Amino acid sequence: MLDPKRLRSELADVAAQLKTRGFELDVAQIEVLEVQRKEWQVKAQDLQATRNSRSKEIGKAKAQGQDIAPLLAEIEDLKTQLEQAEQKSDEVQTQLDDILACVPNTPHESVPVGASEDDNVEIRKWGTPREFDFEVKDHVDLAEARGWFDNDAAVKVTSSRFAVMKGSLARMQRALIQFMLNEHGQAGYEEVYVPFMVNQDSLRGTGQLPKFEADLYKISKNDEHDTNDRDLYLIPTAEVPVTNLFRDEIIDEADLPIKCTAHTPCFRSEAGSYGRDTRGLIRQHQFEKVELVQVVHPEKSHQALEELTGQAESILQKLGLPYRVVNLCTGDIGFSATKTYDLEVWLPGQEAYREISSCSNFEDFQARRLKARFRGGNGKPQLAHTLNGSGLAVGRTLVAVLENYQNEDGSVTVPEALRPYLGGAETI
RNA sequence: GGAGACGUGGCCGAGAGGCUGAAGGCGCUCCCCUGCUAAGGGAGUAUAGGGUUUGUAGCUCUAUCGAGGGUUCGAAUCCCUCCGUCUCCGCCA
Predict the structure, then answer these.
(1) A146 is in an annotated binding site
(2) In A113-166, which ranges are continuous DSSP H helix?
(3) CB A56 under 7 Å to nucleic chain B
(4) Is A247 a catalytic residue?
(5) Chain A 293-322, CB < 7 Å to strand B
(6) Is the CB of A276 less than 7 A from some atom of nucleic acid strand B?
(7) Cα A44 to Cα A90: distance, rounded to the nearest angstrom
(8) I want to staple A20 with a disulfide (CB 3.0 to 4.6 A). Which of A208, A252, A330, A340 is the partner?
């Protein structure tokens, strides 16, 4: 959520910034509502002040044994006036809140202006795609030939876009998770285990709600005396439970930066993306991911984004997977992000770089709704900055390892870094 | 899942319709005293929002005692719903 004060004091400026990411802010409506908000809020508060002081007078008079009736008569219509003013004030405030909840973050100045992913800017490349002297297979052909991947079984058990993996592939996925968690742990990220279902408050905190409910799997409690806000959702990313650990918390400044890592499955319905990446493991309703989360001092968040991105990169480097880093343009960054680097890994089966990690700085956008704060030197709580990034998407890493390390005979060489996690095996 | 007890500031803990944004204690900050240490004395110590304002200064108003409703001129206090914690029983990995 943007700072409401910014919408009052620099509305035109904010609207211009949002326009670069293709969002039209309804300036006229906000101005109208803002005038009403001020009018009714002031009125309601004035009436509350009157009521409070009158009630105290009544209390005193009663204590002294005086007749209260005339005082009561005096404030007879105060109550209805107050109710009206409060109702009106709430109404306007709710309208403003609803608008604000759907306004995305403003992009950082270092974000390239552009309309779509075509305008993203490549920052750097690492590694050289391997030259194959045989015909490369994509991960699906590779895995099916070895009996590692069984799409029919997944469809039977659940439906399309779910995976059943067997044998060495299943083991390698587990190895990748262990490897990533250990690496991040050694780099100072504390490992945390979190629930895979979250409530609405958490989803609002990180910005998935109210705008992106369609992408989420909702668990209905199916119980007649449960209210709506008890409904839980499967997490679309560990970002939600992990970042929400800091909701309504005031952190000691000395404890910043906080760095966490977590492995979770992720569940996404992605209703709009049917038809894309229908083959194989690239786009699934359920996938494994290791996530990195940081809560930092506001002055250090952009520096922290570089560090966090570098941490995700280090996994690709240790696995020897060629990749590039892309600075997402204003038209392509996510709703809550002020700046995002995507890591794209080279997939020989597609002869393309494909997203394997997305590292974002949200500045105080999430922290404001989360009330994730720290107490600074002046003793006053202030909003922290939050960041997160995939470190990495495990399913896609698995795809990348298969395709980049495939051999002509259909076997796959195990990247050296991963061998200790697979009993020392050199190939699978 | 059943039965009971309970949810107050950083923590402990009073308060049971009005003078309570909340006694007291602990902790913390500042000051005084004491040749270090210990002890003692004094002051301060929630969060959010609004108005005023060049101002994150000052002044002022409002809201918040688990959350949300309700009763009342007035609610931490009474009523309802929900959430959570503890104890006992049941069930279970």
Answers:
(1) no
(2) 139-145, 151-157
(3) yes
(4) no
(5) none
(6) no
(7) 10
(8) A330
Predicted complex ipTM: 0.85
Q: Which nucleotide is nearest to A227 (CA to C1')?
A: B82
Question: Across the strands, what pairs with A354?
Answer: A345
Please say if A230 is a catalytic residue: no
Q: For the CA atoms of A301, A303, A306, A309, what is the dihedral angle to 10 degrees? A: -30
Q: A422 exposed, middle or buried (CB, 10 Å; 0-12, 13-18, 19+)?
A: buried
For chain A, how far is it from start to end, CA to CA, in angstroms? 48
CB-based contact A365:A339 (threshold 8 Å): no
Specify whether the CB–CB gap between A128 and A147 falls below 8 A: no
**pLDDT tens for each residue of A283-333:** 999 999 999 999 999 999 999 999 999 999 999 999 999 999 999 999 999
- Which residues make Cβ contacts (< 8 Å) with residue A372, sequence separation at least 6? A243, A246, A247, A248, A249, A251, A295, A366, A383, A384, A386
Active site residue A283: yes
- How many Å does it take to go from CA A252 to C1' B83? 28
Q: Is the peptide bond before A322 cis (omega within 30 degrees of 0)?
A: no
Query: pLDDT (tens digit, 9 = 90+) per residue, A137-195?
Result: 999 999 999 999 999 999 999 888 899 999 999 999 999 999 999 999 999 999 999 99
pLDDT in tens, A285-299: 999 999 999 999 999
Strand B bases near protein CB (under 7 Å) are 18-19, 47-51, 56, 61-63, 73-74, 81-83
Query: Is A394 in contact with A345 (CB distance < 8 Å)?
Result: no
Spatial contact of A203 and A335, defined as CB atoms under 8 Å apart:
no
**What pTM was computed for the model?**
0.92
Task: Answer yes or no: is A54 CB < 7 A from strand B.
Answer: yes
